[in-house]
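User: If you would, consider this record:
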Amino acid sequence: MSGLDKMKARILEEARDTAGNILAQAQSDAEEAVRLAEESAKGETENILARAKRDAQEHAQRVESAADMQRKQAILATKQEMIGKVLDAAYDAVLALDDGKYFELLEKLLKEHVLAEDGVICFSGRDLDRMPAGFREKIGRIAAEKGGSLKISETPEKIDGGFLLVYGGIEENCTVRAVFDSRRDELSDEMNRLLFG
């Protein structure tokens, strides 16, 4: 082999060695890149899974909270309906009291609302017809004890029960319905306590 051939062979040998080194380095770099990509993908996958779990938990909590709120609203609506029915039954029971007890109730109501003025008291036709003997005189005495007087109107009012007091054009509604309505919140609270503890 001549000197030129040896030189060519050595250059080729060096070129093969360099190419082998470059290929080995490229292979190593490619493997490192794949490893880093896999780690990154694995980390991203874990992040996505963690985020998905968090989102699912938050959604479940919102759904549970909404369901709990609907349950509470349904319970409250049912309680209010029951209390309303009890109050309506109580109202009907007052109107259905026997005459003696009914007019005792009206007497107490009158004592609470009568003024020390001259006025008119108005009843329903039903109450005018069933008014017990001596009740008209009681009205006069109760008004006089307060320093006023009441004339009983013989014109029936369109009310279910109770009475209206009229002083100088100002009317005070003392009907059974007005009494129930004015005390509805208080009565509802009491019914709630009695019925539901």
Remarks:
- The first helix runs from residue 3 to 95.
- The chain has a mean pLDDT of 85.
- The chain has six helices and four strands.
